[in-house]
Amino acid sequence: MKDQPVKTITTDNLLIAYLEHGSSDGWPVLLSHGFPYDAHAFNEVASILIEAGARVIAPFTRGFGETRFISTDIMRSGQQVARGFDVIRLSEALGLKRPIVGGFDWEGNSSCTAAALWPEQVSGLVSYAGYDIVDVNEQKHAATPSLERVCWYQHLFQSERGRECLAKNRYELARMLWREWSPDWQFDEATFARTSKSFENPDFVAVATHTYRWMHGLTAGDPSLQSLEGILTQKPKIKVPAVTIDGKTDPLKPGGTADHASMFTGLHEHIITNSGHNVPQEAPQVFADAVLKVHNWLK
């Protein structure tokens, strides 16, 4: 698909840059990328969905691309409620009527957060991977040594040395993660270069390091969001129709997330595909088919 022009819209805390695919009167889909990717991750998914009549919005999430905080006074938070709120606020600003929301990595998390906290504003969910809401208390405890090794970057970002490493080596570090998380994906340099421009955002390092420090319970979140984070500690079940996806070769999700099924009380299907972490670019047909399945359930 030919790259779409970047559009922007202002919410109460962000100037959000986004790509729009399809007709403005299409059925709405809001697809969000994680770290370290950008909105172009959904180009091929969008090209499939617009053939089925969708209007696809793919934002550059906070800290990426041309998205900017509207004030220096706003906390550069990367916690899940802040990012979930971004999904809802963008939907409202664009006048989307109960879009299907979906994402991977951080934004699988934010899409699940949006669906759990604001189900009246979301019609359906596609999540890579599973019920992806962070349990901070659980994250304070050790995982298996093999998974701790895979999560080396999260441990690195806990220190100021790690912040400096990301600031000085963001492109090299991101390329390493792409290769480690998607071992069978043969991306070319042009694909990486297009995305890596989004890492030049002035808040990229601040948001990324806060995300992982907050997730590990080592730094505070935005006090104004604490009551909503409190709701998420109760692990609310997701009521909207949902398709969840696992990639067989993703080292971040050993064993997959099929055991999350009980966290979905509406229509739900779990899919396992032969890909790594970046399903939208490695297996765009699989991700698009998941969105189409949710859309067909809603008819």
UniProtKB/TrEMBL annotation:
- Family matches, as Pfam families: Abhydrolase_1
Q: Name one GO molecular function term.
A: catalytic activity
Highest taxon above the source species: Bacteria
The residues covered by the AB hydrolase-1 domain are 28-278
Question: Under the cellular component aspect of Gene Ontology, which terms does the record hold?
Answer: membrane
Q: What sections of the sequence does the record tag as coiled-coil?
A: none
Which SUPFAM superfamilies is this protein grouped with?
A: alpha/beta-Hydrolases
Q: What is this protein called?
A: Pimeloyl-ACP methyl ester carboxylesterase
Classification lineage: Bacteria, Pseudomonadati, Bacteroidota, Sphingobacteriia, Sphingobacteriales
